[in-house]
Amino acid sequence: MKTYFVYIVKCNDDSYYTGFTNNLERRMQEHSSGKKKDCYTFNKRPLQLVWFETFNDVQNAIAIEKQIKGWSRRKKEALIKQDWDRLIQYSKNYTQYGKESSTSSD
Question: Which InterPro entries is this protein grouped with (predicted)?
């Protein structure tokens, strides 16, 4: 059975890059060496692998990669930190959770 990886790397400019591969070690080496000059990470090295998950179903891995690419920075950081409460909070529609109030109720 093949294994696939969805991963997030943190770039030297503090941005995140989300990718998909069937060989994480090789892909990280490609990113680090700057194999592709037109790749997002080429001018953002060095890179740090901050999260990855393994999958056995290629279609599921691709779907998760696309989903994460559409997430906000704070949602990606909640995933990286495994802060499930924040991840759930940030997954809700803004109108469902509203602004966090800076005033307290008496």
Answer: GIY-YIG_endonuc (IPR000305), GIY-YIG_endonuc_sf (IPR035901), UPF0213_domain (IPR050190)
Greater model confidence, 100 or 62: 62
Contact 31, 45 (CB under 8 A): yes
- Residue 30 in tokens: 């490609």
d(CA 41, CA 85) in angstroms, rounded, equals 30
Burial 7-27 (b: 16+ CB within 10 A, else e): bbbbbeeeebbbbbbeebeeb
What 8-state DSSP symbol labels residue 33? H
Does residue 96 belong to any structural domain of this protein? no
pTM of the entire structure?
A: 0.84
Q: Per the structure, how many domains does the chain have?
A: 1
